[in-house]
Specification:
- The structure is a single chain.
- By secondary structure, the chain is of the alpha/beta class.
- It folds into two domains: 232 residues, TIM Barrel; 67 residues.
- Helices cover 42% and strands 12% of the residues.
- The chain has 15 helices and eight strands.
- It has an eight-stranded parallel sheet with strand order 1-8-7-6-5-4-3-2.
- The longest helix is centred in the last third of the chain and has 18 residues.
- The relative contact order is 0.12.
Length: 353
């Protein structure tokens, strides 16, 4: 079976240099994508995101993502980023469902403005030296909008398209619409990457079988399980799949804690613990019957943080196969897995091709 390209989804306040370094130690993706650079009339490229591009110490391509609505300012920012970094290309965010972002007609709200999307891409194409890609959803209100979006994308001078298989309205709380991703794979002459609810080896295999996408983009699943990219590779290579223990998971949390501290402008304990909670919401999912997640949300100090982590992690028991299907952080992955019949046992044993 051919192996897709694996990319780490751009996640605001998550896709940082510290997180990338921790991911790389555990295999990591083939391609990284930055948090989005906010673009407007007065904006300049955020230095912490520039640092992620300039200070990465691994030889993998990194795309710089931008979010905005004005072609003139997007062009200006793309030129600045390329002058300041060695990014492999520029990616435009057409999928962020944040009400604040959409309220400014940016992110996912751009899917309601086909003419503006076309103007943005055609303005950027002459100035982007590397790849020019889009990250989108299957519609704003409904997946029924995707056919017209597909017509739009087919006429744009882009080098790739990543599709989160949900609408903007659905945010992260629905099943993944794999049919629309498969339509794009079949009809477009550019690589299409599938995104949404890939949290285990079985869900990755199911997404690939349903869509035959050139790439798989993983976000929340990789926060929870940083070995996931290598596990999926092992699956495609028909190799025995590594299964981490809770002790491995504790070392991951320790590594992440240290890396984030080392890349912060100034270490402040309380702020650092709060920053770690952004990751722990996903890392704790599926462990301790919900108690781990509840307890970690209440900690305020480093001592409290590590007391809770050591109480729930550090043992020789295997990391639970799946996160908790809570309808908020992780949703739709069981339905995705069930679409092709791959079961959780694929995480443990060799996979048939």
């Amino acid at each position: 079976m051919a192996e897709p390209i694996f990319s780490l989804a751009p996640m605001q306040a998550i896709s940082t240099l510290a997180f990338w370094r921790v991911m790389e130690k555990r295999g990591g993706p083939d391609v990284y994508i930055t948090e989005y650079f906010r673009v407007h009339v007065h904006s300049t490229p955020e230095r912490k995101i520039l640092a992620s591009l300039n200070e990465s110490d691994f030889a993998k391509p990194i795309l710089a993502q931008m979010i905005g609505t004005e072609p003139e300012y997007l062009v200006r920012t793309a030129q600045q980023i390329q002058q300041m970094t060695d990014c492999a290309g520029i990616d435009i965010n057409l999928g962020c469902p944040s009400p604040r972002v959409c309220g400014r007609a940016a992110g996912g709200a751009l899917l309601k403005s086909a003419d503006l999307i076309r103007e943005i891409v055609e303005s950027l194409r002459p100035v982007v030296a590397g790849t020019l890609t889009l990250k989108t959803r299957v519609g704003f209100e409904s997946e029924a909008e995707f056919e017209s979006l597909l017509d739009l994308f087919s006429g744009l001078p882009i080098d790739g398209l990543a599709i989160h298989g949900r609408t903007v309205r659905e945010k992260y709380q629905s099943e993944v619409h794999t049919r629309e991703i498969a339509m794009a794979v079949e009809q477009l002459d550019i690589p299409v990457h599938a995104n949404g609810s890939i949290v285990t080896v079985p869900t990755a295999r199911s997404m690939y079988q349903k869509t035959r996408a050139a790439g798989l983009m993983i976000g929340r699943g990789a926060i929870r399980n940083p070995w996931l990219f290598d596990q999926i590779r092992q699956s495609f290579h028909n190799e025995e799949i590594y299964h981490p223990t809770l002790a491995d998971h504790l070392r991951y949390v320790e590594d992440l804690y240290e890396e984030i501290a080392s890349t912060s402008w100034q270490y402040e304990e309380v702020k650092h613990v709060q920053r770690m909670k952004k990751f722990m919401n996903y890392i704790a999912s599926g462990i301790g019957g919900g108690e781990f997640s509840a307890e970690i949300r209440r900690v305020q100090s480093a001592n409290q943080f590590w007391e809770v982590c050591h109480r729930h992690l550090g043992g020789s028991e295997p990391l639970p196969e799946e996160p908790t299907a809570d309808g908020k952080l992780f949703c739709g992955f069981k339905e995705l897995q069930d679409q092709t019949g791959y079961g959780p046992e694929l995480n443990r044993v060799q996979c048939p091709t």
